Every structure is written in structure tokens, then in C-alpha cells.
């Protein structure tokens, strides 16, 4: 008796991790049941058939760095996408799985309550698969003691910050997190920028009334990332604790990461499309338009910096490419990009 499939996708160019070839795909019970040479399934029964008409067929993307429906952690502004709108946008772009941050706030003494609250926001509202990274802003004794419960709940990663007043941990707190995370086999993601350097640069710019979006790149110099990334690597090496340095923008920071990896340290890294395709000149647009390209860390100086990040993807320094999707409404003076104009 021949199998009837739920779905056939025919006449496509199927891209896998090993090849691109002309093939047809059969799907049964929401799983890929067969990938055969083009035409091999022509006499196969299916409830539905899609003719790809020569289009590429790829696995669904996994975006491992997504901010949705977060509280206002950085002043009055807050991310604009809900779990529904953000996951819908992801699906439209071919991303079928997202890993979203569940952010603990500084005054909170628990992580499990944060996880429960974030689950409630996402439950029944996502168009694709999702999971969470726990964002740790207060590594209290109680929060650290909950790492075992996080692992039992399926959470295998968390994130900490070396900058931002609402989120920044000092080096002692970072060591506390790394030690507990190592014990429970949890990977620690780190936003690595030197907070004092950023604050000092921001104060210098404000004194001179240099407030246009283009100066965001000046306020977050590459040296802030380079120093913090190297310091994070040192703390990781000290405890032999795995870390993932996120949204790396500077080739010099990438070089420190590559050196650590070559020495066999458990140091991993992520970069994002904005560091491959934008430079600081994109922040220098007429009026306030440059704010549309503001991100932290910012895009770097020139094409040479972009090439350095491309090399990191090619040589394996970066094993994760994510969006760092964190949208704000542009034309909004209350919660959007224009909040602090």
C-alpha cells in the first residue's frame, strides 16, 4: 500500500548544509519524510501539492537573538513588537524558530517568575517555534539557586550585560553567574561593552551638544567592545566557563575571540547582519533619519571593518548569525526612537 503524504513540494532547488540540488520533498505528520530527485515523486499521493517552480527551498531559519514585548529597560522606550507580530514577521522571512529574551529586572529576586511571565506573553500567540534565554539583571543568591530549575524547565542559556545602568553586572557578579552556569551546564551570553568608557564619551558629546544620531557611533567606540570582550574572555578562562559573546561588531574584538578559540577556550561568538552591511555613515542621514540605523554596538567605520566580520564568519570565529531584532517605532516621541530627542 503506497503512502499518502500530507504535502508534496515539487520542482524546487533544495538547499541543505551539504548541497543544492533539484529535488522534491514529501511531508508527513509535520515531518520531512522524503527528499527525492526531481520527478521521483510524480506518482505519489498527497493531500496537497505545491509547485515551487524552480524556487529555492531551505530549512527554516533559527534566529537566536530576539527582543520582543520587553519592559522599558532603557529609559521610556520599549520594543515595539509583540510575540504575535514579531513571530509573524519572522515566518514571513523564512525564520521558523526564534529564541527570545525573558528579562529579569533589577528589583526582581527571581528568575522562575520571569520565565513564567514571559511564557504567558508568548503562549498561543506565536506563529512558529520559540524558546527563551533568561536575561539576568540581579544575580542574587535566590536567582543563582534557581539555575537548576531553569535547566529542568528547558532553559540552557542566559544573558548578562557589561553595560547599561538597568542591567550591568560588575566583574564579581559576572563571576558568580559564570560559576553557577558552569555547574549547571548553562551557556552564558555576554553583551560586552565597557560601560564607563561609553558614559565618559557620552558626557563629552553632550557637553558639546553633539546629539545627532551619527554621534551614537562615537559614544560607543570600538575600544569599548574590544576591552570588554577581552575582559569577558579572561573571566571565562579563569573559571573555564563557556561564554557566547553576542553581536560582535569589531574585527579587533573578533581577533581576541579567535585567539581564545585557537587556545582551546570555551569561547563562542555571534555577529549580526548590521555589521556586515552598515557602517557609521548610515547613521549620518538628513534630519533624524540616521536613528533608523542606531543599534548597540553601532555599525563600525568602513568597509574594512565589514570585511573583518565577513572573515570571522568564513573562518568559524562566529558560529551564530542572528538578527538582534529589537524594534522601536521611529516616529514616536513617547516610547519610540524620538523619545529622548
Automatic annotation (TrEMBL):
InterPro entries: Amidohydro-rel, Metal-dep_hydrolase_composite, Metal_Hydrolase, Metallo-dep_Hydrolases_sf. Residues 56-326 form the Amidohydrolase-related domain. Pfam families: Amidohydro_1 (PF01979). GO terms for molecular function: hydrolase activity, acting on carbon-nitrogen (but not peptide) bonds. Belongs to the metallo-dependent hydrolases superfamily. Hydantoinase/dihydropyrimidinase family. This is Amidohydrolase-related domain-containing protein. It comes from Salinomyces thailandicus.
Amino acid at each position: 500500500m503506497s503512502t499518502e503524504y500530507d504535502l508534496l513540494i515539487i520542482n524546487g532547488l533544495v538547499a541543505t548544509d551539504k548541497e543544492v540540488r533539484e529535488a522534491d520533498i514529501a511531508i508527513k505528520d509535520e515531518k520531512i519524510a522524503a527528499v527525492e530527485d526531481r520527478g521521483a515523486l510524480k506518482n505519489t499521493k498527497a493531500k496537497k501539492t505545491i509547485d515551487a517552480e524552480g524556487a529555492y527551498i531551505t530549512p527554516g531559519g533559527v534566529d537566536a537573538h530576539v527582543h520582543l514585548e520587553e519592559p522599558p529597560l532603557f529609559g521610556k522606550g520599549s520594543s515595539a513588537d509583540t510575540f504575535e507580530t514579531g513571530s509573524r514577521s519572522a515566518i514571513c522571512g523564512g525564520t521558523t524558530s526564534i529564541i527570545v529574551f525573558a528579562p529579569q529586572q533589577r528589583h526582581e529576586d527571581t528568575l522562575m517568575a520571569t520565565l513564567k511571565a514571559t511564557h504567558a506573553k508568548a503562549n498561543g500567540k506565536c506563529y512558529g517555534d520559540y524558546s527563551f534565554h533568561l536575561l539576568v539583571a540581579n544575580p542574587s543568591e535566590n536567582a543563582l539557586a534557581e539555575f537548576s530549575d531553569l535547566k529542568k524547565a528547558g532553559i540552557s542559556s542566559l544573558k548578562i550585560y557589561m553595560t547599561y545602568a538597568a542591567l550591568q553586572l560588575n566583574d564579581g557578579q559576572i563571576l558568580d553567574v559564570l560559576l553557577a552556569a558552569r555547574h549547571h551546564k548553562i551557556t552564558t551570553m555576554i553583551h560586552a561593552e565597557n560601560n564607563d568608557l561609553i558614559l565618559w564619551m557620552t558626557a563629552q558629546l553632550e557637553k558639546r551638544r553633539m546629539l545627532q544620531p551619527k554621534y551614537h557611533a562615537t559614544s560607543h567606540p570600538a575600544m569599548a567592545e574590544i576591552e570588554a570582550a577581552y575582559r569577558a574572555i579572561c573571566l571565562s578562562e579563569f573559571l573555564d566557563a563557556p561564554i557566547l559573546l553576542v553581536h560582535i561588531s569589531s574585527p579587533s574584538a573578533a581577533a581576541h575571540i579567535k585567539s581564545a578559540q585557537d587556545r582551546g577556550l570555551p569561547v563562542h561568538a555571534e555577529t549580526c547582519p548590521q555589521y556586515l552591511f552598515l557602517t557609521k555613515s548610515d547613521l549620518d542621514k538628513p534630519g533624524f533619519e540616521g536613528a533608523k540605523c542606531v543599534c548597540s554596538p553601532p555599525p563600525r567605520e568602513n568597509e574594512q571593518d565589514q570585511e573583518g566580520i565577513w572573515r570571522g564568519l568564513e573562518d568559524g570565529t562566529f558560529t551564530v548569525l542572528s538578527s538582534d531584532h529589537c524594534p522601536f517605532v521611529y516616529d514616536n516621541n513617547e516610547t519610540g526612537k524620538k523619545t529622548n530627542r
